[in-house]
Specification:
Number of helices of chain A: 6
Largest interface: A-B, 79 and 90 residues
Radius of gyration of chain A: 21 Å
Strand order of the largest sheet of chain B: 5-9-4-1-2-3-10
Oligomer: heterodimer
Shape of chain B: elongated
Strand content of chain B: 25-35%
Number of strands of chain B: 16
Distance between the termini of chain B: 58 Å
Strand order of the largest sheet of chain A: 9-8-7-10-6-1-4-5-11
Helix content of chain A: 25-40%
Radius of gyration of chain B: 21 Å
Distance between the termini of chain A: 56 Å
Structural class of chain B: alpha/beta
Chain lengths: 251, 319
């Protein structure tokens, strides 16, 4: 089983994000960069499949600047076998990202592609679904459980949807996007980190892929939403109920 | 002509509020684009739903048949694309529910369309706003070409009101697809739906266990007629199902009253509730960030305060 997993470099989720004065981007000084948390679930799931199915390979792919190597190394230290970095300095919109990934899939021919359900920076929640469409593959998004068929040609995926849990059956190859209850990602071990340094990291220039990444969506402005201010502290439950009833008229 | 297609999601033979918000967005977009809005209902045996939908003053396309009995991304994408091809819609609008988030990007890829996910504001026919970075930044984006695909956040605007009449047209479509529905394990609850409730009480890691959600938070919800929610930390810890998660990666709510119990107020949780009208926080840590956005903060041990609060509310209601 060959599993391709996407790895996006994003700011640590606890980062306080500020828009730059020109409204063209965010202030990136002093930001700690990490693997997109949902991609970590994806890496972990791929490693668990590899541990179950002999002869499996876990290939990591990132699209971004040279610095994204760090996040790929983190994935390799967790146990990924090799990594591909598609180099580009500009931000791509989800459809362009999906096109680049489709090209990588064409070369790598994985049985499953696992992506995080969304990146915590642009919150688009779109690339997995778009990639599935471009490839003509089935998609099982927001996965909380992935069971591979004994034949190695199908999967049953449980999905976290509004109102409950849905189970889908899909033939492979397929796209899976990871939700937060899929697993608990492991930490990279020290030997893992040492080994990761020697693992293959292939770099591709985006220009060499021959993919149309021209934007369809133009981001014209970023701004900070109006801040909510702190109200008041109350001393007791009785005071709270009185205020909610008399002042806020909320109950 | 800049006509708009709204894909109308239905649940148990009804249109949830999220669908009616998407319909309102479709109407607003059509008005701004100088076009007309049509709503499509897909499913098996959807006659009653289609005429119900026409009662919102829109023309309706009913796509009926066994392949649509359960939502499947490939079949629904094929059907949506076919409708766009037949009728020449220039914009496709879908509620940003888990169904819409699954479907809209796939439709955009099929149509080679510009995609604006989870929008909260329609500036004009091609310009939209959406929150990114867990709601810390509002992004304005422009999609110059057509078609455009939008998913609409359930708190973006008021639901479309009933009124007017539209025609119902049946369109037969036989979609190709390889995905198969196996089962749906529904979370049964007598409480209001999280995204529709006017009061939401959410619990966080401070509740310490799933049993404590049952013992402490549920009675409070029931006294208030509130929906129950949870922080990601509580979901991560396995206290409650993910379906209850309020936040950047869960549901976004904006009720009249939001009561956060034992929730510290991580950025990603605030993203899902900071547009609530009145926010109450109960937390024993006076420094918890949730107090910075709460209208009323009570620094207290929740295991003492919540039963007291439940009792006070019961008294108030029976008075």
């Amino acid at each position: 089983m060959k599993i391709l997993v996407t790895v996006k470099r994003v700011p640590d989720p606890e980062t306080v994000i500020k828009v730059n004065p020109g409204g063209t981007g965010i202030v990136t000084d002093n930001i700690k960069w990490v693997v997109n948390p949902f991609d970590e679930y994806g890496i972990e799931e791929a490693l668990r499949i590899k541990e179950k199915v002999a002869g499996s390979e876990v290939v990591l792919v990132s699209i971004g600047g040279q610095a994204a190597q760090e996040q790929l190394r983190t994935g390799l230290a967790m146990g990924g076998d090799r990594a591909i970095l598609v180099k580009i300095d500009e931000q791509l919109e989800p459809l362009a990202v999906a096109r680049v990934l489709a090209k990588v899939v064409e070369t790598e021919k994985p049985d499953i592609v696992i992506l995080g359900k969304q990146a915590i920076d642009d919150d688009a929640n779109a690339v997995g679904q778009m990639l599935a469409e471009l490839l003509g593959w089935p998609q099982a998004t927001f996965a909380s459980k992935v069971e591979l068929g004994a034949d190695g040609k199908s999967a049953k995926v449980t999905r976290e949807v509004d109102g409950g849990l849905e189970t889908l059956a899909v033939p492979l190859p397929a796209i899976v996007t990871a939700d937060l209850r899929l697993n608990e990602p492991r930490y990279a071990s020290l030997p893992g980190i040492m080994k990761a340094r020697k693992k293959e990291m292939k770099e591709l220039a985006i220009g060499d892929l021959g993919v149309d990444v021209a934007p369809k969506v133009k981001i014209t402005k970023l701004e900070t939403p109006p801040k909510r201010t702190a109200g008041r502290k109350v001393e007791s439950v009785q005071e709270l109920v009185k205020l909610l009833h008399d002042e806020a008229k909320a109950i | 002509m800049s006509n708009v297609l709204v894909i109308a999601e239905h649940v148990h033979g009804k249109f949830p509020k999220t669908t009616l918000v998407a319909l309102a967005a479709g109407k607003e977009l059509a008005a701004k684009a100088g076009g007309k809005v049509t709503a499509a209902v897909l499913g098996q045996g959807v006659d009653a739903l289609a005429s119900d939908l026409a009662g919102y003053g829109v023309d309706v396309i009913a796509v009926d048949g066994a392949p649509f009995a359960h939502y499947l991304a490939d079949a629904y994408t094929a059907a949506t694309a076919e409708l766009v091809k037949q009728k020449g819609f220039e914009a496709i609008v879908i509620a940003a529910t888990t169904l819409g988030k699954d479907l809209a990007p796939r439709v955009a890829a099929r149509l080679n369309a510009g995609f604006a996910p989870d929008i909260t504001h329609i500036v004009d026919a091609k310009t939209f706003q959406r929150p990114i970075w867990a709601g810390n930044v509002i992004q304005t984006l422009e999609i110059a070409g057509t078609p455009r695909v939008l998913s609409v956040r359930g708190t973006a605007m008021d639901a479309a009101p009933k009124g007017g009449t539209g025609n119902v047209e049946k369109v037969a479509i036989t979609p190709a697809g390889t995905m198969q529905f196996v089962e749906f394990a529904e979370t049964k609850s007598d409480r209001p739906v999280l995204t529709e409730a006017s009061i939401v009480c959410s619990g966080g890691r401070g509740l310490k266990s799933g049993e404590n959600f049952t013992t402490y938070l549920e009675p409070l919800c029931d006294a208030l007629g509130a929906a129950m929610g949870a922080s990601r930390a509580a979901v991560d810890a396995g206290f409650v199902p993910n379906d209850l998660q309020v936040g950047q990666t869960g549901k976004v709510v904006a009720p009249q009253l939001y009561i956060a119990v034992g929730i510290s107020g991580a950025i990603q949780h605030l993203a899902g509730m900071k547009d609530s009208k009145v926010i109450v926080a109960i937390n024993k840590d006076a420094e918890a960030p949730i107090f910075q956005i709460a209208d009323y903060g009570l620094v207290a041990d929740l295991f003492k305060a919540v039963p007291e609060l439940t009792e006070e509310i019961r008294k108030l209601k029976s008075a």
